[in-house]
């Protein structure tokens, strides 16, 4: 679009605004055409928007939301610009303005933006319980993370590259991924979304209903960890209840740790003693008896590296005590 055309428009807008009493100047041709051919409900189509929003319009054909325009199969309220911003007729008649377009995101609350997007994305993202997610409840709405017109990643229309996006609000997590033992997120080997669903998640079937922490559910409602660490999936003839019921993070720090194998505790045996603190027989029952059996005495250094003997700590098909 020529510069002259733009200045004519700007000129028209200023004249109409400054001089209320002076007779309205003629509308630019594409605008008056669009108004006269408006569909019921005031839908004027997307091409007229180019007249005044060339920057936004320019890249729109590459946007996944352009599909509705290209196919021509959607109803007007689900097509193109008006699919999100609402019918444009009044906006054209007023020669623009924020207040005249039904959905101007700069004037909308996060809740309204969420409702707008869920008008079409209800099905794909509600399974994740988005309305109750920690993000929605803290007013982090779709457009905090997605940028429809100025996406940094063409795929998923993210406002920034994923890790930068998440670290932007979760500074403390960055340092966890810089610890000596960590998952390689900062190195670009994996993403937050390999384990989290930023749209939320229903209560976990593991961890006995602790806060879901938006940890993604993989396959049959299992922990996302098992997508990659599939050898820990089982089912095992002899399950270690802690793995199945409490979940991996009862022993491991999922992001990073100063301890080898991402353990939460500096040594293996302190990890185990959180639960196996019943004394007699070194069992699980916390029966208050503090004496150790001579054949299995945790005070002896020999017994402190539990997993040198209990090697199949995640579950075993051969031994009830995970010894092989
Ligand atoms: C998928 C929904 C959606 C579609 C489709 C859409 N927009 Fe937007 N638009 C937004 C959102 C959300 C914003 C707020 C800024 C942001 O988050 O990127 C916005 C912002 C704007 C703005 C404000 C200024 C700016 O550059 O951010 C203009 C103007 C605009 N859109 C025009 C259009 C036009 C013209 C079209 C069609 C070519 C269109 N929009 C299609 C969602 C949409
Ligand atoms: C005659 C020029 C003109 C046409 C045609 C036009 N707009 Fe606008 N539009 C404007 C002006 C001027 C503004 C106000 C900009 C401002 O105040 O920052 C505006 C603002 C907007 C905003 C508000 C963005 C925000 O959140 O602040 C949206 C959305 C928008 N237009 C969408 C559209 C859509 C969709 C179409 C096509 C149906 C369209 N416009 C056609 C001139 C126009
Ligand atoms: C906290 C940031 C964040 C918020 C808030 C958010 N998203 Fe997303 N969204 C993402 C990320 C990151 C991805 C990419 C997921 C991936 O890499 O697998 C994504 C992917 C998507 C996808 C494509 C893949 C899919 O899951 O279907 C859609 C559609 C989507 N988001 C829509 C929305 C809508 C609609 C909202 C608001 C109701 C929203 N998002 C809110 C971060 C967010
Ligand atoms: C009028 C219906 C409609 C509305 C409203 C809508 N979308 Fe979409 N959105 C779609 C369709 C259709 C697709 C394309 C799905 C496909 O690729 O098959 C899509 C795709 C997406 C994608 C996925 C891009 C990808 O690479 O997979 C994201 C992210 C997204 N929309 C975000 C949003 C956000 C944020 C809003 C609100 C500002 C929004 N959408 C509003 C219909 C809509
Ligand atoms: C290897 C899987 C994994 C990856 C990758 C991952 N997380 Fe997590 N994250 C988890 C698990 C599991 C929890 C729950 C931990 C718990 O409840 O003890 C969690 C908890 C969280 C929490 C809430 C706990 C707290 O400390 O307040 C935030 C915030 C978080 N993750 C952000 C992120 C961000 C941001 C990224 C990417 C930079 C990321 N996570 C990558 C698995 C992961
Ligand atoms: C605009 C800021 C913002 C962005 C961007 C953002 N978050 Fe959050 N996130 C929050 C807020 C606010 C909370 C809720 C308060 C809290 O727990 O810190 C939250 C909470 C979380 C939680 C904890 C949920 C719980 O139940 O405690 C996880 C996990 C999380 N975000 C992951 C992510 C991931 C992954 C990304 C990137 C895809 C991301 N966040 C992007 C602001 C953001
Ligand atoms: C996307 C694949 C992927 C997911 C999902 C994943 N991991 Fe990992 N994990 C790896 C890779 C690859 C390594 C090897 C370390 C490296 O070089 O990055 C690793 C390393 C580990 C280690 C340390 C192993 C060692 O020998 O030091 C532990 C423990 C671990 N992951 C636990 C988990 C837990 C718990 C979860 C879920 C919260 C999880 N992982 C999710 C890929 C994944
Ligand atoms: C009861 C505590 C506990 C639970 C629960 C647990 N782990 Fe472990 N895990 C350990 C210990 C202890 C080690 C270190 C073993 C060693 O030093 O030989 C380990 C080592 C690992 C390793 C590296 C060595 C290997 O065997 O590959 C990975 C990967 C791992 N765990 C993943 C997981 C995943 C995934 C889950 C959830 C399905 C999980 N862990 C649940 C205690 C646990
Ligand atoms: C979160 C709690 C928890 C942690 C941490 C934990 N366990 Fe367990 N462990 C259990 C429970 C619960 C059982 C099942 C008890 C039952 O079936 O009666 C069990 C069973 C066992 C058994 C089989 C005993 C039997 O009588 O069937 C062994 C051996 C064992 N754990 C070793 C370990 C070792 C070694 C560690 C440290 C790497 C560890 N556990 C960490 C909770 C835990
Ligand atoms: C030198 C090898 C070895 C080491 C090290 C070892 N165990 Fe054992 N553990 C065994 C053997 C063998 C048995 C079965 C016979 C017995 O009870 O003495 C057993 C039995 C158990 C049982 C089942 C006992 C019961 O009565 O329920 C638990 C629980 C257990 N060990 C936990 C641990 C923990 C926790 C550690 C680390 C502090 C540890 N073990 C270190 C070899 C070992």
Detailed description of the structure:
The chain has 14 helices and two strands. With about 325 residues, it is mainly alpha-helical. It folds into three domains: about 5-105, no CATH class; about 110-195, no CATH class; about 235-310, no CATH class. It is elongated, with a radius of gyration of 29 Å.
Summarize the entry for a quick read.
The protein is mostly helical. Helices cover 31% and strands 1% of the residues.
Architecture blueprint of SSEs:
Elements: H1 3-18, H2 29-36, H3 54-58, H4 67-71, H5 80-85, H6 89-93, H7 110-126, H8 134-137, H9 142-145, H10 162-169, H11 171-176, E1 181-182, H12 225-228, H13 241-246, E2 256-257, H14 268-273
Antiparallel strand pairs: 1-2
Bound molecules: heme C (10 copies).
Residues 240-242, 246, 250-251, 268, 271-272, 274-276, 284, 306-307, 310, 313, 320-322 line the site of one heme C (HEC).
């Amino acid at each position: 679009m020529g510069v002259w055309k733009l200045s004519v428009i700007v000129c028209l807008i200023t004249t109409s605004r400054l001089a209320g009493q002076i007779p309205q100047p003629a509308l630019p041709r594409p605008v008056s055409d669009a108004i006269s051919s408006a569909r019921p409900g005031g839908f004027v189509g997307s091409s007229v928007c180019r007249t005044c929003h060339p920057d936004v319009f320019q890249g729109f054909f590459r946007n996944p939301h352009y599909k509705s325009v290209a196919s021509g199969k959607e109803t007007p309220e689900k097509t193109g610009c008006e699919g999100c911003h609402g019918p444009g007729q009044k906006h054209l008649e007023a020669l623009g303005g924020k207040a005249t377009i039904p959905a101007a995101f700069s004037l909308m609350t996060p809740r309204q933006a969420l409702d707008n997007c869920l008008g079409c994305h209800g099905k794909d993202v509600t399974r994740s319980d988005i309305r109750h997610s920690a993000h929605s409840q803290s007013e982090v709405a779709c457009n905090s993370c997605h940028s429809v017109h100025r996406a940094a990643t063409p795929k998923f229309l993210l406002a920034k590259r994923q890790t930068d996006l998440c670290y932007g609000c979760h500074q403390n997590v960055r340092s966890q991924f810089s610890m000596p033992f960590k998952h390689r997120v900062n190195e670009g080997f994996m993403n937050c979304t390999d384990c989290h669903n930023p749209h939320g998640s229903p209560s976990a079937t593991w961890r006995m209903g602790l806060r879901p922490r938006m940890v993604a559910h993989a396959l049959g409602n299992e922990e996302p960890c098992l997508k990659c660490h599939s050898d820990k999936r089982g089912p095992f003839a002899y399950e270690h209840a802690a793995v199945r019921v409490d979940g991996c993070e009862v022993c491991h720090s999922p992001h990073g740790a100063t301890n080898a194998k991402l353990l939460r505790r500096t040594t293996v045996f302190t990890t185990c003693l959180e639960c196996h603190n019943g004394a007699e027989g070194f069992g699980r029952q916390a029966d208050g008896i503090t004496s150790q059996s001579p054949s299995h005495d945790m005070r002896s250094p020999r017994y402190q590296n539990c997993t040198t003997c209990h090697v199949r700590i995640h579950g075993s098909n051969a031994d009830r005590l995970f010894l092989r």
